[in-house]
Design goal:
One of its GO terms (biological process) is trehalose biosynthetic process. Removes the phosphate from trehalose 6-phosphate to produce free trehalose. Trehalose accumulation in plant may improve abiotic stress tolerance. Keywords: Hydrolase, Stress response. Helices cover about 35% and strands about 15% of the residues. The strands form two sheets. It has a nine-stranded mixed β-sheet with strand order 5-6-4-3-2-1-11-12-13, with helices on both faces. A four-stranded antiparallel β-sheet has the order 7-8-10-9, covered by helices on one side. It starts with a helix and ends with a helix. The protein binds the ligand O=P(O)(O)OC[C@H]1O[C@H](O[C@H]2O[C@H](CO)[C@@H](O)[C@H](O)[C@H]2O)[C@H](O)[C@@H](O)[C@@H]1O. The ligand O=P(O)(O)OC[C@H]1O[C@H](O[C@H]2O[C@H](CO)[C@@H](O)[C@H](O)[C@H]2O)[C@H](O)[C@@H](O)[C@@H]1O binds next to strand 8 and strand 10.
Length: about 375
C-alpha cells in the first residue's frame, strides 16, 4: 500500500519543513501491525497538544547549567541556584556512597545481584551514541563486581551493541529494554518458557534466549527504514535499529526542529497501533505494545538466577533514565533491594538512593567489591 505521507502529517505538508526538502516516496507494506487506511488518523492531534513536545524538551537535564532565560523558555530540569531544593532532594534520595554503611547493613548475609543500565550509568551521555564508550577503569570495576555478584546489563540498545560496548563475557545481557535476554543454560532454575529458545553466544556456548517481542522484528525494521527516510532532511537526527525497538535521536537537532521530529514520529506511528512511543534522554523510542520492560526483565533474570524465592537476596538496579524507573518500581513493590538513580539534578524517582554520575557509579561498585572482600575475610 502506498501512502502519501504529506496527507497524514501536518509537518510534512508544511513547505517550510526541513523534511520536505527530501524525497518522501516511501512505500509501506500493509500488515497485521498496521491500521487499515480507513482507520488511520483516529483524531487530529499533534505533538504540542498531547504533551509530547513538553516531554521531549524536559527529557534530559542539560550537562552544564543554562542561563536563567533558557530555564524559563524550555522548562528544563536544572539544579536551582540556591541549593536548598537540591539538599531536600538529596535527603529524599541519599547518596549511595555516603549511605554505604546503611546499604552494607541491609546486604549483610544476603546474595546481591547487580543490574546496570548502560548509557548515562556506565558511560557518560555524549552527543554521538556511537561514541558512548565505557572507560577502561569502569570496565575493570564492572568486571570485578561480576566476580562477586551475578551482574547483568539491561539496556535500551540492542543486545549485540551493548555487548560490543561492554565487552565482558562474565555478565548477563538484556538488550532492547529487556526484550532480548540471554542467559546461560546451566544457571540454577533457568526457566524454559514458551518464548525461550536455545541458541549460542559469541563464544559458542549454549544459551537461553528470551525474546518476548520476536514477532515484531520485521515491523521494527520497516518502521526503522521509514523513519530514516522521513527524518533524513532534518539535520542532526539519528535513527537506530535495536531489533525489537527503534530510537529516534534529536539531541543534535536544532531546537526549533524538535517539534517537527516529534510530529513525524507521532504521525507515522498512527499506522501502527501495536507500536508505542516512550521518551528517553533526547530520544524517542518506538516499542511494541507488550507488557514488557526493564522491570519485567529484572524479574525474569532474578528467576533465571534462582534468586526469586525467599528473602536472602538483595537486587540493586542502577540507572539514569525514565525506562529504568520500571525496574526501580519493581524492586520497590517487591520490597526487595533498591534502585539507585544516576542524576546530578533533582528528579522524582522510584529509586531509593542516588549517584551523581558514572564516576560515582564506579566508586559505588568498587565499594561494593571492597566490602564483600572484607566480609569474606572476616567470616573465614
Ligand atoms: O537503557 P540505556 O542503556 O541507557 O540506553 C538508552 C538509550 O541510550 C542511548 O542514547 C542515549 O545516550 C547517547 C550516548 O550518550 C546520547 O547521545 C543520547 O542522547 C541518549 O538518549 C542509545 O543511543 C539509545 O538507543 C538508547 O535507547
Amino acid at each position: 500500500m502506498d501512502i502519501n505521507l504529506n496527507k497524514i502529517s501536518p509537518a510534512l505538508s508544511d513547505p517550510a519543513s526541513p523534511v520536505n526538502k527530501s524525497r518522501l516516496g516511501t512505500s509501506f507494506p500493509s500488515g497485521k501491525f498496521m491500521m487499515s487506511s480507513r482507520k488511520m488518523i483516529p483524531k487530529l492531534d499533534d505533538v504540542k497538544s498531547n504533551g509530547w513536545l513538553e516531554a521531549m524538551i524536559s527529557s534530559s537535564p542539560p550537562r552544564k547549567p543554562l542561563p536563567k532565560r533558557l530555564v524559563k523558555d524550555f522548562n528544563v530540569e536544572v539544579a536551582p541556584e540556591d541549593d536548598s531544593a537540591q539538599r531536600a532532594w538529596m535527603r529524599k534520595y541519599p547518596s549511595a556512597i555516603t549511605s554505604f554503611e546503611h546499604i552494607a547493613a541491609q546486604a549483610k548475609d544476603k546474595k546481591i545481584a547487580v543490574f546496570l543500565d548502560y548509557d548515562g550509568t556506565l558511560s557518560p551521555i555524549v552527543d554521538d551514541p556511537d561514541r558512548a564508550i565505557m572507560s577502561d577503569a569502569m570496565r575493570a570495576a564492572v568486571k570485578d563486581v561480576a566476580k562477586y555478584f551475578p551482574t547483568a546489563i539491561i539496556s535500551g540498545r540492542s543486545r549485540d551493541k551493548v555487548y560490543e560496548l561492554v565487552g565482558l563475557t562474565e555478565l548477563y545481557y538484556a538488550g532492547s529494554h529487556g526484550m532480548d535476554i540471554m542467559t546461560p543454560v546451566n544457571v540454577n532454575g533457568s526457566p524454559q518458557g514458551p518464548d525461550s529458545v536455545k541458541s549460542t553466544d559469541q563464544q559458542g556456548e549454549e544459551v537461553n534466549l528470551f525474546q518476548p517481542a520476536k514477532e515484531f522484528i520485521p515491523v521494527i525494521e520497516e518502521v526503522y527504514n521509514s523513519l530514516v527516510e522521513l527524518t533524513k532532511g532534518i539535520k542532526g537526527t539519528k535513527v537506530e535499529n535495536h531489533k525489537f525497538c527503534t530510537s529516534v535521536h534529536y539531541r543534535n537537532v536544532d531546537k526549533k526542529d524538535w517539534e517537527i521530529v516529534g510530529q513525524i514520529v507521532h504521525d507515522h506511528l498512527k499506522q501502527y497501533p501495536r507500536l508505542r512511543l516512550t521518551h528517553g534522554r533526547r530520544v524517542l523510542e518506538v516499542r511494541p505494545v507488550i507488557e514488557w520492560n526493564k522491570g519485567k526483565a529484572v524479574e525474569f533474570l532474578l528467576e533465571s538466577l534462582g534468586l526469586s524465592n525467599g528473602d536472602d537476596f538483595l537486587p540493586i538496579f542502577i540507572g539514569d533514565d525514565k525506562t529504568d524507573e520500571d525496574a526501580f518500581k519493581v524492586l520497590r513493590e517487591r520490597e526487595q533491594g533498591f534502585g539507585i538513580l544516576v542524576s546530578s539534578v533533582p528528579k522524582e524517582s522510584k529509586a531509593f538512593y542516588s549517584l551523581r554520575d558514572p564516576s560515582e557509579v564506579k566508586k559505588f561498585l568498587k565499594n561494593l567489591v571492597k566490602w564483600r572482600k572484607m566480609e569474606d575475610s572476616t567470616s573465614m
